[in-house]
Design a protein that fits this description.
Strand content: 25-35%
Radius of gyration: 16 Å
Number of helices: 8
Shape: globular
Order of helices and strands: EHHEEHEHEEEEEHHHH
Number of strands: 9
Strand order of the largest sheet: 2-1-3-4-9-8-7-5-6
Structural class: alpha/beta
Largest sheet: 9 strands, mixed
Amino acid sequence: MTTALFLAHEDDRSRGRAEAGSLAVAARARGFEVVVAHPSDDLPRPETVEFVTVLGSAHAADDDTLPWLAPERAYVAETLAAGTPILGVCFGGQVLSRVLGGVVDRSPHPEIGFVSVDSSCDFIDSGPWMQWHFDHFTVPPGATLVAHNAANAQAFVSGRSLGLQFHPEITAGSFAAWRQGWTPESEVEVARDFDVDVDALARRIATDAIDLERRCARLLDGFLAL
């Protein structure tokens, strides 16, 4: 059995495992042993894993005061040098962009909820994908933009690696894990500032679960085939 390593950014490891969502489900269904770790953990050598997924975070990917961010960036660079593919999701896509020479900064158009994406990639569906970000990445030098919308670059391919701004892994469980890390005040602020009914969004994620899992699995298959 080959290993798929997921890097989660919560100190609560159970939350990190939940946040891997349908990407972890799809990876297990394809015969991978899924290992979820924090960047500060003793991580496996990149050449010993089949691929690495860098998940989202409530933190900013350009906040170099985070004590674990520099080691994580170094591990991502080491992984790329080893030829092991990386799937970067939201914060993870931003980290991948930085390591490859791109720029991460505050987005003038934050995206919350299901937002439409235009894709030129056969394994990324055009249409709504779950978003929850206040920063964005630039497409790094030498990479290919494969999905976008009017607000942001949404996906790029660099060699065998894929950076995403959206969250294909979203499930009712992973969204609940996100909400565990929010204060009641922060949830109210987001709902007010972005006109989002968070409870209605949770219901939509649960209602659309089968379709969301199918699209996520298709994306993972395409990534693995790069």
